[in-house]
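Researcher: Here's a chain I'd like modeled. Treat it as a single chain, no partners, no ligands.
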Amino acid sequence: MRTVAVLSLKGGVGKTTVVLGLASSAMRRGARTLVVDLDPQCNATATLDPADTGTTIAEVLETPRPTVLREAIAHSGWSDEVDVLVGSEELESLNDPAPDARRLGKLGRALEALSSLLAEDELPYQLVLLDCPPSLGRLTRSALVAADGALLVTEPTLYAVSGVNRAFDAVEETRDAHNPDLVPLGVVVNRVRPHSYEHQFRIAELRESFGSLIMPVALPDRLAVQQAQGACVPIHKWTTPGAREVSLAFNLLLARLLRTGGRGRHQAVNWPEHDEMNG
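Model: Modeled as a single isolated chain. Structure tokens:
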């Protein structure tokens, strides 16, 4: 199981879009995926459209017992292969700016119990995506403590570039203080317009700062992304040309995430044999 924290410390750059696109790509490959919605805005939960649960991630963070975790997980409206650890607006009250180590470890302890919670006829999760809020409090730090990799999201704009630098610093600090196995998986640049001089300038600036950590595939700025999310449909099932372009980019991004563990280290991930990366 690979657990990936998806983060940015600037709002509005499409962090949840990246989580949903990766979940859609993994679903197309037949890989069982869990999306953990740590953002109090709950946009990932809304788009994945799970059945109602009596429990949410807020209760899991307070009481990380297996029974509580089980009650907070539901199948998404997309597929039984994509589950949701349901978000809650109550998370905002839990987002302490300076949490202690005991609180930071609760999410990780809960996720460690995932395999034992699954019924005998259910496959284990092969991918867990942690959708972090755009702030560096307990929620984002808990995700970094629980994850084995961190994917940073940015737009090719001035303020977003500044935010991804701060996010990278947070990854390094968490690794030094709490999670020595955490590695930066890369920086994905979202909403790129290829003919924009400003966008190309900012991408070059990012490459100068992050080098090979900049993902070789950028996500194009296409209206289809918002259309699919508004309809609660995976991007791979939206049939416009723009959606197909974005879907291919997510396929390539997911393949890259599976191949590398960050900083040149490689990690094997057990995925289904049928591969629909080009579908």
